[in-house]
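hey m, so remember when u said the tokens were messed up on ur end? i reran from scratch. heres the input so u can diff it against urs
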Amino acid sequence: MVRVPRLPAFRSPALFKPFVFLLALTPFIALVVNGVTDNLGANPIDKITDVTGIWTLRFLVITLAVTPVRWATGWNFVVRFRRMLGLFAFFYGFLHFSTYIVLDQFFAWNLIVKDVLKRPFITAGFTAFVLLIPLAITSTAGWIRRLGGKRWQMLHRLIYVSAIAGAVHYLWLVKIVTIEPLTYLALVGALLAIRAWRTWRPKPSPVRPTEARART
């Protein structure tokens, strides 16, 4: 059995948070720089839409991967980053949705509603973003106290549906199915399958005191 090395105890997660924050903000900074320097290509709106959309999905996958990574490695500190990563998924989702509303549709609400109702890939994307809104709002410690641990956890399981909808949105968006959208769909499915297996797997029967003495 291969043992995953544990990180030294002196490496506090708090020291890594600014680094992770800046790393997660890098795609946005790159977009801003490319926009200012006129390097967004022939169709800047499409470029912004593509970049913000793919990073929304990536952060959803990364957020879902935090708990399985903790289970597999014993690196409990990674949980400290989960809330921030989830908020970045919402941040890029907000940019993605805002680009569609403001730059693509120019606040044409009648066309936006028609798109959401009649175009399946937009329906899936809209669903993914809407489900992230209550998660972002209730991400604070105050909301955890107000809702209570169990209710808060139940609410935040909406990220599972959001990730599935986001992956389906990407798959339905592309005119020719390629390996990339299928990979994201497979990753989301695998991460959710791991969670389901962990939840529903048969639990080992507790060893009775008499049986424990007999074994010794």
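this time it looks ok to me. Residues 181 and 216 are 54 Å apart (CA to CA). if urs says something different then somethings off w ur setup not the seq
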